[in-house]
Write a structure and sequence with these properties.
Distance between the termini: 32 Å
Helix content: 25-40%
Largest sheet: 6 strands, antiparallel
Strand order of the largest sheet: 1-2-5-6-8-7
CATH architecture: Alpha-Beta Complex
CATH topology: Aspartate Aminotransferase, domain 1
Number of strands: 8
Number of helices: 4
Strand content: 15-25%
Order of helices and strands: HHEEEEEEHEEH
Low-confidence stretches: none
Length: 141
């Protein structure tokens, strides 16, 4: 199964209301950067144990670890969870940047160093969310 099929299956297996929001977000992100690399991580580690929620990734960058290692990883991640949806903005060095830059304008969301969590996208300012994702992917809005 290719990454497009994995993403489609993941989204369609979610409860209907969450599936609709995830599909809308997925389409919005891919329309911003139609040629970006897509990822699908099923949440399992190398031993097959579930360690996180499945997530969809967009774009590619090199992540450098404190101990000197590095690996390729996505720039923006999208994941459904029990309480709503999370968007991950990877590679943010300043852990206060997202909250300080966008927090007052985004709407009903919790923003940590690299994660934006919300119950439903209806409580967000779509333009501000697009601005965050476009900046992370390095595309114009």
């Amino acid at each position: 199964m290719n990454v497009h099929e994995q993403i489609a299956r993941y989204i369609s297996d979610l409860p209907r209301s969450k599936s609709e929001e995830m599909l809308d977000l997925h389409r919005r992100i891919t329309s911003m950067s139609p040629d970006c690399r897509l990822w699908f991580l099923d949440g399992r580690n190398a031993d097959g144990k579930v360690v996180s929620n499945p997530n969809i990734g967009y774009g590619a960058q090199m992540i450098r670890y404190a101990k000197g290692g590095q690996r390729e990883f996505y720039k923006v991640g999208l994941s459904a969870n029990e309480s709503g949806i999370s968007i991950y903005i990877m590679g943010v060095d300043d852990k206060t940047y997202l909250a300080e830059t966008y927090g007052s304008r985004l709407g009903k969301a919790t923003i940590t160093g690299y994660c934006i969590r919300f119950r439903t996208a209806k409580g967000l300012d779509a333009g501000v969310l697009d601005e965050i994702i476009a900046e992370a992917l390095g595309v114009a809005t």
